[in-house]
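Researcher: Let's do a round of design. I'm pasting the structure tokens now; please hold your answer until I've finished.
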């Protein structure tokens, strides 16, 4: 699949880091100065990227596991969705879930981007739903035996 992209960051395009990776790393575009995230602070980090996602697809913005593990850095609305009709700059809403400051540097890999097909649904109003073994069992109901 080929997708149009504008890169105003001067950093590499999103890229797969291994042969079987699902996500492509995305870089921070902070030419003026780094951004410091204090504990529990969040910030919208620009990437300098503008995407033309095809109709029927979305780009999912996901956290990088290394940042999460080593520094407690996540994404507030994870996964974030970039819709096919959005043409603005891709920005990543990072959050610092640790107890120490974290400095986001220009060119740092801050997120992963996964492009995925999606379906559109038409809801069908009903009075009943089909029966299943799980039924209405909610959070944690399948792992307590």
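Researcher: That's everything. Go ahead.
Model: Designed sequence:
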């Amino acid at each position: 699949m080929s997708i149009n992209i504008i890169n105003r960051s001067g950093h590499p395009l999103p890229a797969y880091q291994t042969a079987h990776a699902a996500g492509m790393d995305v870089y921070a575009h902070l030419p003026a100065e780094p951004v410091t995230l204090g504990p529990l602070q969040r910030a919208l980090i620009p990437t300098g990227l503008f995407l033309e996602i095809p109709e029927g697809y979305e780009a999912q913005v996901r956290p990088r596991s290394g940042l999460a593990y080593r520094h407690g850095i996540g994404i507030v609305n994870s996964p974030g969705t970039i819709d096919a009709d959005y043409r603005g700059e891709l920005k990543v809403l990072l959050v610092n879930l640790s107890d120490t400051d974290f400095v986001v540097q220009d060119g740092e890999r801050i997120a992963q981007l996964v492009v995925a097909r999606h379906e559109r649904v038409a809801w069908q109003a009903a009075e009943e739903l089909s029966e299943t073994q799980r039924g209405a069992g909610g959070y944690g109901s399948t792992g307590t035996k």
